[in-house]
Structures are given as structure tokens and as C-alpha cells.
Amino acid sequence: MFDVGFSELMVIAVVALIVIGPERLPRVARTLGHLFGRLQRYVNDVKADINREIELEELRKFRSTVEDAARGFENTVNTTVSSVEGEVVKTGSELNSLTQDPAAAPSAVPTPDSGAASQPNGETSGGEPQRGAPPPPEKTAV
Questions:
Q1: What pLDDT is recorded for position 136?
Q2: From first to last of its 142 residues, what are the pLDDT tens digits of the chain?
Q3: Which residues on neighbouring strands pair with residue 118, listed in sequence order?
Q4: Which residues pair with 88 in a beta bridge?
Q5: How far is it, in rounded angstroms, from Cα 14 to Cα 20?
Q6: What is the pLDDT of residue 46?
Q7: What region does 130 belong to: left with phi over 0, alpha with psi -120 to 50, or beta?
Q8: Which residues make Cβ contacts (< 8 Å) with residue 110, sequence separation at least 6?
Q9: CA angle, residues 4, 5, 10, in degrees to nearest 5
Q10: Is the dihedral of CA 15, 19, 20, 23 positive or negative?
């Protein structure tokens, strides 16, 4: 606290010895030492309280930052889940409509009632060869 050199300290000690007297000087010095120790402890306690408050404020800011990040992540996840659920519902309804209306379903295998009348030689009524299985081989007489 104070920057006191040795010579200033000697002057203070001589003045205190003259003013207080040699009988009371040790007791006064002891009392001043106790008071100075209490003052140091009080100052250290105040410093520690201030440091704790600063750390607590930093922790509150950090917690707030983490909570904001968690909310942002939660919103992103919820948006993604909603989008996926929407696509699943859309696909499910499309599948349901296809299974309920067989005429709307694209057919990979031609059905016999598709309008093409089969001829015995494997051609359709339009003179084109029938798609699908090749015509049976002709039998030759031996």
C-alpha cells in the first residue's frame, strides 16, 4: 500500500516512542498489527467476492450461449423431422392411391385385356410381332 523507506520508518518509530512512551509502545504496536491484519483479511475477502461475482457472470453468459445453441439445434432438428414426416406422409398417400386404383398404376406386364388380340403366329392384330415371349418355333415334317 504505502511505499515507505527505512529512514521514514525510523522517523515514525522515534516519534511514536516519544509520543506513546516506552511502556505502552509494545501494546500499541501489537494492536496496530492486529488491526492491520484484519484490514488485509477484509480486503482479501472483498477481492475474493468480486472475483466470484465475475466468474459467476461469465458462467451465466456461457450458459446463455449454450442454451441458445441448443435451441438453434433443436429448431433445426424439428424442421428436418417435420420435412421428413411430410415426405413420408406424401409418399404414403401416393402409395395408398396407387393400391386403391389399379388402373392408375403403370403396368410392366401386359394384361390379356389390354386390347391386343393375339394371333396364332405371335403377331398382334396390327401385324406387328407381339412383345414379350417369342413365337413358338414352327414344326417341320420329316
A1: 64
A2: 567 788 888 888 888 888 888 888 889 889 999 999 999 999 999 999 999 999 999 999 999 999 999 999 999 999 999 999 999 999 999 998 888 876 655 555 555 554 444 455 544 555 555 555 566 666 666 5
A3: 124
A4: none
A5: 10
A6: 97
A7: beta
A8: 116, 131, 132
A9: 100
A10: positive
DSSP 3-state of 132: coil
**Do 124 and 118 contact (CB within 8 A), yes or no?**
yes
pTM: 0.44
**Where is 34: in which H helix or E strand?**
helix 25-100
pLDDT of residue 129: 52
What would the grid cell of residue 123 be?
Answer: 403377331
Cross-strand bridge partners of residue 129: 123
- Quick one: which of 82, 134, 132, 81 has its CA closest to 110? 132
| Single-letter residue type at 35 | L
CA distances from 2 to 7, 8, 45, 108 (A): 14, 11, 20, 100
List C-alpha distances in Å: 62 to 58, 65, 73, 74.
6, 5, 17, 18
